[in-house]
Amino acid sequence: RFCHLLRESTLQNGAKLNSMQPLGEIGTVDRIAAATDFLLSAQSDWTTGANFVIDGGLSVMVYLFFNNTTF
What we know:
Elements: H1 2-19, H2 29-40, H3 58-66
């Protein structure tokens, strides 16, 4: 029952949730998989000690909000 209510709420509020994201949409599993594919590929062989934030820019928006800063 809870999963059904959550799904309905997400469907009803999807446009609102998307509009709140800096890139205009909520991320998908495919976005995370693409980053994982990169890290597992030979293209990442010079990547060491890096943090990958895969949030569509949301953390930047939060930082800017709390620091009263804009681009």
